[in-house]
Amino acid sequence: MEAKVMMMEESVQPLRVPPQMSIYADQHNIIHLVQTMVSSLAVDQPEDPIAYLLLLLQDSSVHVPRVVLLGAPAVGKTTLAGRLCADLGAVHVTMETLLDDPSPAGQEARRHALKQEEVPDDLLVSLIQGRLKESDCFNTGWVLDGLPQTRLQARSLQQGGVIPKHVVLLVAGEDVLLERHRGRLLDPLTRDVYHETFARPREEAARRAEKSADAHVGALRAHLQRYRCKVTGLSSAYRHILTTVDADQPPLDVYQQALAFLRTRRCSRTPRVLLLGPPGSGKRLQAKMLADKYKMVDVCCSDLLRWAEADPSSVGEEVRTYVQHNRTVPKSVSWKVFQERLDGADCSQRGWILHHLPCDLQHAKHLTESLNAPNRVFFLELTDDVCLQRTTITPVHPSVHAAPGDVSQCLDNTRSVTQALGVYRTHTAGLQCVFPDGVHVDADQDPQCVFEALDKQLTIQTHAH
User: Fold this and answer.
1) pTM surpassing 0.85?
2) Which helix (H) or strand (E) element contains residue 88?
3) DSSP-H helix ranges across 91-195
4) What are the tens digits of pLDDT across the range 58-92?
5) Strands 142-145 and 352-355, how do they pair?
6) Cβ neighbours of residue 103 under 8 Å, at least 6 residues apart?
């Protein structure tokens, strides 16, 4: 009877995924692959799912570009989209090309456009879906220029299976947009966009180029007002695959930043994040903020021995033995504590963010060789002066005479921090060799800015296509 009860209890326990399975899935991008296959099956609903999946796995279209460019009128979307499409071999899809669709849906959309009415959401979504299912878009990829226009349209496209891999939001100030709009030229034959000052057309294109029909300032201001009402909700629909690019810079710089982003691949994986940095760089605060957002386990190495001392496991018993006899816990036992914590069910299922790792290079090497190797490493950079300023106690004002005990405490604290900084600096080069792909983040700024920089990197897994 007891055995039966035990079997029933085990049957309701949550499924435990071994760490080595997670590592294999990360290395081969298995989660993304499964998501792609399931999404394609749900959208296309083939009669023979197995044969369809075999063809899908062999098809290079899994890796073709699927891009959405967003931004205010005159920000440079069309220019950027044209160059990206030319270099990537993708199809440039705009509202104008959709209105050229000879289908009944296309004709209905043109009627709305001729009356200067907005094309209804369901009609526009239908046109986009139909265009992207055509063979050229399927085989070579696509860039949606200024589409979708609202959050509702974005959600409808997602429900219909139109899911971009990358979304680029171009931003610029209103004065910049007004200046660009005043000199906007359009080639009626090719529909290429030029500018009287910044991007003049050449030869035949120069003879054909005309002032844009809506080039007066009043029209632009009206467009900008409508855009501002929609952009927050629209960008939130793509927040996990979106990057923002400053469009108020040379076109080549805008292009290179956008292209660098398109060459990254988003990857769904269990986060295993390591934060490194000197004392005072804000590791504990950033770890808490990231753990709260992504529901990761916040693992502070400096607190692990206290955690282990209260743990009833055999490792906890070892730690208690050393603590009770006022002896230093050996590194071998500390490593056991460390591994046991990362092997916990919560860490395996939700992922973890690790900080205050001892600067010992041996610990770092053991970590990279273990089943709990981090898949994100960040170095928080801060100068020694700022570290000391943040972590030491100083008198409030030179005219205030500090008590002898306060002065002593201040000196002791300064010596302690200086020693810790020296240890970290000694091992910094070695840590960078152990974690060569670590991302360096400037920690000498507002904590929210540091958090945003870390957060942006966490959402993207960089790979060359």
Assistant:
1) no
2) helix 77-88
3) 95-99, 104-114, 121-132, 135-140, 151-159, 174-182
4) 665 556 899 999 999 989 999 999 999 999 999 99
5) unpaired
6) 130
